[in-house]
Amino acid sequence: MCVGRGTASDSYRHGGDVMSRKSIGLRTWLMQRLSAVYMMLFVVGFAIYFISNTPASFLEWRMMMANTFVAITATLFFLLLLVHAWIGMRDVIMDYIHIDGLRLLLLTGVGFALLGAAIWITKILLTVTV
Amino acid sequence: METVRLSVYRYNPEKDQQPYMQEYELALGADKMVLDALKMVKAQDESLSFRHSCGEGVCGSDGLNINGTNALSCVTAIADLEQPIEIRPLPGLPVIRDLVVDMAQFYKQYRAAKPYLIVKDPEPEVEFKQTPAQREELDGLYECVLCACCSTSCPSFWWNPDKFMGPAALLQSYRFLADSRDQATDERLDEMEDAYKLYRCHTIMNCVQVCPKGLNPTRAIGKIKHMMLKQLT
Q: pTM of the entire structure?
């Protein structure tokens, strides 16, 4: 039996230590949900801000993005987008790819691509100067 | 009497290289159920195998894939179906013969849900008591007949039937998590804490669509996640 079928007393000892729960499943699921909430709020907020302060020139556009608050919230948006994408891609690969080596290869590939994108986006958004 | 046309999945591993579909035409009243049609086929062609018992949606033994949707044949009316009615075994489970599938994987996941009360205190000498409100928590959970229509319609269960518990087992798991008499909440939640057992559910909701008892495993899964979240904080 692959799933623990311990006696009641076994699971009693095991269950006393709630804080040590690894929570891999819960944490990734929660991160996916929380990142989605932030992205939704950012997209709506940024759209409203952009419509009410539409930059008239490239210089104004750069000034908008050079604003610390905008730069940080936008960078956070893209980083959370990549985290969200990582969890989603990981789920897809876990669902469909059952060959260990291929799965490792794909996860590594996706991981590096997303990490690279993260560094690049951060570099672009946090170095906007006027 | 009308003519009812059936197209039935046939496979006898001792004789057939490949499964095939066999056509049947029956003279049958339009008020009949799919199970009645199968029984009529069986009377003509006794080589056809399928499971059935109570004939009224209580035993859960005649779960089949009918015109692409999992259902209990005994409560699926022929009048509601397009013809020819295509009858196949439940998807995703190994076929033993014709419409009979091997349910071992499904029951293994059911067993993993520990579908019984776990009590640590000395058991009361009389019955366990519940308030009407506590009892109401179990409505929509205890009615499951384990027909496997839900789990075998779930793509996550198709891809990972050995690791993902599937909607039926998760509904049962929540049935005991929600029970005021059960004292193993932490252990039950702990055991589902990996990336597969619970979290392969992507709320596709095929389970809700097909459940012949009108139950909602997706809601139960959501409630398990909610309980885990509460435990974390």
A: 0.86
